[in-house]
Specification:
two-stranded antiparallel sheet, five-stranded antiparallel sheet, about 25% strand, alpha+beta, 5 helices
Length: about 210
């Protein structure tokens, strides 16, 4: 039911966010206006990929000296030859809208109890890990996988991850269950913005050079 609730919020956001993101682009806002940021924003990276935690970072971790050329999403696009500060208003809006409504839809919904659960280490009473991987964010040239389970005050939750070679350097990357980072459960505290989880389903083909 939590997953279905989040899907509904994601679908609502696709048409709902067109005008608010146009306004946020025009005003150069790092958050969505009119109260929408509480559900459809992104506390970690901002609605447009320029979050407070990353807004002054370059790809190599150094401080950016070019206003408008910082943040996770602009830095990623720069690797594809797209320079954030050189984009027209329409292109800038479209790249920001894609981040907000299509790539990371309703990400702040993870702070709503009826669509999310706590993964703060202080709330975890038990956890179990099987596999040879602890982080699903890093692609590799070898097969990786994990089955992870944890128990908190809300109940019992599971997360699964598979990164399997198909042929040559192409891998099938799958992730389903609750979005967690098993390596973080070994820490005494959870990093900012990583203390809530939502149910995810992800499948994509990755080329690893």
């Amino acid at each position: 039911m939590r997953f279905i609730a989040r899907i509904i919020l994601m679908l609502i956001g696709i048409p709902l966010l067109v005008i608010p993101t146009l306004w946020a682009t025009y005003k150069n806002l790092n958050e969505l206006p009119w109260g929408l940021n509480k559900i459809w924003g992104n506390a970690e990276d901002g609605w447009n990929g320029n979050g407070t935690q990353r807004r002054h970072w370059n790809i190599d971790g150094s401080i950016s000296v070019n206003k408008g050329d910082y943040g996770w999403w602009p830095d990623y696009l720069r690797q594809q030859g797209i320079i954030w500060r050189n984009l027209s208003f329409t292109s800038l809006w479209w790249q920001s809208y894609k981040w907000c409504a299509l790539r990371n839809p309703a990400w702040n919904a993870r702070y709503l109890p009826f669509v999310s659960t706590s993964v703060d280490v202080k709330d975890i009473t038990a956890s179990y890990h099987k596999g040879n991987a602890t982080n699903a964010n890093k692609a590799s040239t070898v097969n990786l996988w994990y089955d992870f389970q944890f128990i908190n005050k809300d109940g019992y939750f599971r997360a699964k991850y598979r990164h399997t070679r198909l042929f040559k350097n192409y891998f099938l990357h799958r992730r389903w269950g609750w979005k967690v980072y098993p390596d973080l459960f070994n820490n005494k505290s959870t990093p900012a913005f990583k203390d809530r989880s939502v149910y995810v389903f992800q499948i994509k083909l990755i080329k690893v050079d």
